Amino acid sequence: MKMSMGQIGRRFGRRFLGLAFGVAALAAGGTVSAEELGQPHAWALGLQAGVTPVMESIASMHSGLLVVITLITLFVTALLIVAMLRFNARSNPVPSKTTHNTMIEVAWTIIPVLILVGIAVPSFRLLFQQLDLPKADLTVKAVGKQWYWSYAYPDNGKFEYDSLMSHDKQPRMLAVDNELVVPVNKVVRVQVTGADVIHSFGVPAFGIKVDAIPGRLNETWFKATKTGDVLRSVL
Predict the structure, then answer these.
(1) Is 3 exposed, middle or buried (0-12, 13-18, 19+ CB in 10 A)?
(2) Which CATH number does 53-131 carry?
(3) Closest CA to 49 of 27, 35, 33
(4) What CATH number should be reported for the domain whose range is 5-42+134-234?
(5) What is the DSSP string of 142-169?
(6) Residue 66: exposed, middle, or buried by beta-carbon count in 10 A (0-12, 13-18, 19+)?
(7) How far is CA 147 from CA 40, 115, 172, in A?
(8) What is the DSSP string of 107-118?
(9) What CA–CA distance (Å, rounded) separates 20 from 131?
(10) How far apart are CA 200 and CA 209, in angstroms?
(11) Domain locations along the chain
């Protein structure tokens, strides 16, 4: 059975007090705009602002790794400059015959291992947070189809609706006619599958991305903490 968006809104309005996210069904990934949450912004850098605990953890992990990578790059660059200045043919007409340095060999083995362990621990914690689905307050089923998506709320009645790209709404080529409506401060489980070919269901502001594969039901989850319209990205 299919229902109109008006019927869906009336049915869920009382329960969720009108606190909802609009998730556009076709969108390209973008960066955050100060005026519009979860919207692409020209010349922006970095990730979209997170509106879920998972996305905040992803952004924190991203920022931490950026610092680590920058420090490693600067250190290696400094070593290369020192090597070029101190160990060239002009500075050392008689080359050194040293073949081993135990301290250096131990250091360049132990230090990278410690760095990788330091990265692995928060990475495993983040993966566990993403993959360990808590008890859901609401279940949404998303079915990927060519050029559009179908959504259903299997725990709240047998109804579904299609969400197609809209040419009359803004942002252009990103907005849809029927948005997916979900509550804030509630755990939402998303079941994703494909009806024809492999699709990709992802919402950058939520920190979720999962493949929609025909014949297979994948799951992810989110807990939005802010109200607004966020765009989803699709491949």
Answers:
(1) middle
(2) 1.10.287.90
(3) 33
(4) 2.60.40.420
(5) EEEETTEEEEE-GGG-S-EEEEEB-SSS
(6) exposed
(7) 20, 44, 16
(8) HHHHHHHHHHHH
(9) 24
(10) 7
(11) 5-42+134-234, 53-131
Tell me the one-letter amino acid at 190: V
Q: Which residue has the tokens 């879920």?
A: 52
- Tens digits of residue pLDDT in 37-95: 777 777 878 888 889 999 999 999 999 999 999 999 999 999 999 989 988 888 888 88
Residues in the chain: 235
Q: Which residue has the tokens 């060239």?
A: 88
Inter-axis angle of helices 53-86 and 102-131, nearest 10: 160
Least Cα distance to 203 among 32, 16, 8, 38 occurs for 38
Alpha-carbon torsion, ordered 70, 72, 78, 79, to 10 deg? -160
Residue 57 carries which side chain, given as an amino acid letter? S
pLDDT digits (tens, 9 = 90+) for 96-143: 787 888 998 999 999 999 999 999 999 999 999 999 999 999 999 999
